[in-house]
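Regression test case RT-17, inverse folding.

Input:
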């Protein structure tokens, strides 16, 4: 008899602390750092430490969502039809590149390469 390899579900093996992937951990840390520097430090100097902690946590949550979520594919909106299913951080990165390069971006479609 031959040996057969059974497919395994390895989706969760690349996760740190169960919900974090490497990318989402990085974005969470960046969001928490921005919230800490911009809001926690000034608000704690004014005596509103708890408000600063909450705002820093919200920024960390926003960073986590940017690192993990994908753009939904909604038929109602033209923007989501074009970007549906892509990672949000890729969309943000592409938008920043578009703005910095003088509003020019080159995208090669598969049918253009074969022609």
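Golden output:
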């Amino acid at each position: 008899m031959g040996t057969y390899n059974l497919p395994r579900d390895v989706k969760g093996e690349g996760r740190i602390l169960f919900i974090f992937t490497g990318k989402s951990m990085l974005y969470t840390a960046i969001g928490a750092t921005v919230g800490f520097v911009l809001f926690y430090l000034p608000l704690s100097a004014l005596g509103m430490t708890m408000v600063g902690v909450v705002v820093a946590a919200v920024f960390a949550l926003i960073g986590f969502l940017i690192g993990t979520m994908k753009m939904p594919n909604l038929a109602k909106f033209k923007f989501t039809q074009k970007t549906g299913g892509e990672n949000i951080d890729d969309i943000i990165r592409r938008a920043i590149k578009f703005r910095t390069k003088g509003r020019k971006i080159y995208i090669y479609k598969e049918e253009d390469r074969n022609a």
